[in-house]
Amino acid sequence: MEVVILAAGQGKRMRSVLPKVLQPLAGKPLLAHVLASARALGARRICVVHGHGGEAVRLRLDAPDLVWAEQSPQLGTGHAVLQAMPHLSNEARVLVLYGDVPLIGTATLARLMDAAGKDRLALLTVEVGNPAGYGRILRDGAGRVTRIVEEKDATPDERLVREINTGILVAPASRLRDWLARIGNDNAQGEYYLTDIVGLAAQDGVEIVTAAPDDVSETLGVNDKAQLAALERMFQASVARGLMDAGVTLIDPARIDVRGELHCGRDVEIDVNCVFEGRVELGDGVVIGANCVLRDVQIGGRTHIAPFSHLDGTVTGEACSLGPFARTRPGTVLGNEVHVGNFVEIKNSTFADDAKAGHLSYIGDASVGARVNIGAGTITCNYDGANKHRTEIGDDAFIGSDTQLVAPVRVGRGATLGAGTTLTRDAPPDQLTVSRARQQSLAGWVRPVKKKK
Ligand code: UD1
Ligand code: CA
Question: Which residues are the active-site residues?
Fold first, then answer.
């Protein structure tokens, strides 16, 4: 099977410099969704028909299984498919998809392919309440499809037909080639209609079959930002449904956004307004508080993430607690039962089991040992203006509040750093290290008073 994806439309109504098919839905371009469906079906080759200036699309999504055909000027959907024909083999069955119809599902397409068999023309059609704007499927007395008439060319009687053309179809390549050579543009829009191949197929005695989508949303196109937002919600609703079917507790399924892959263990609970990006794995019993953003993270079982946390490129062990307002950046690896409290930023650092950083700290390029307690306001000074350096903190160390660790520097096992220490040399194990001006009190000191004039 080979696939043609029509993507030459300008998408003027998006009012954007970004081509329509690159507009994101669930964090990836509309066209990428269609490509994923085509690939899931096992397409051997995919030809994308793009318009003038389609380089941005190509730059973003090019891959070895894609061929690109330019269509300019755009003379209609039949003319668009014609541009792809030189790239398709004559023996193939051709599936026509649309770059701006992103929710088309593989189960629906597999059924359409089955209906097509080796040599039939198969149309994906749907019965709608209001068919305005769509091509109508016309059938004879025996129920056989005879042709498709576009709204603008239809008689009042034909307009009453509620079975509409979604545009998605499957045809044998050799037949398609022949039909496309025979269609004209003598119609209300002066365009070469792909839909005209249906009448030719009927005349040629080729069997025409139809299939319906699992869900109407699969056939909806995107022309403006309102439709884009509507499809985003439909997509997210189906993701939410899938999560709940798998046993995930969503406090409000209307308030979750998955822009990538979210894999959940048993008894995971997700509060409102969370965003998941990239690949996220949540272990058994994980609880995610409201308003968290998680990108490319792996969270160990029974870990709790409190509200407003932002975790990126992070792996945690089991039974950790993070947040509220925790920020972890790529390269953060936490052991079991680690605690990361509010306003703590961690980057490219490891925390061994039971380590804690409760409040207001920056820990970058550090290895933190087991059971280490990092006091409030601790900062690793990892950057000297030119290079990054590491801080190593041994097991059971205690870092007093408001400490600066000027890297490269090491804190020995069991060492204690007094509050306010600026550590510039290694601290030996098991000792108290403190660096601050000795406290003194001046007995005879008098506070100055304002002079009277
Ligand atoms: C088309 C169908 C109509 C169907 C409707 C479903 C035709 C003649 N009509 O109508 O039966 O009910 O879709 O939405 O096919 N495109 C190109 N090059 C072109 C023209 C269009 O690539 O020269 C692409 C567009 O980017 C778009 C798709 O084809 O993705 C459909 O084009 P559009 O103009 O929206 O077709 P409709 O008139 O809506
Ligand atoms: Ca359309």
Answer: 359
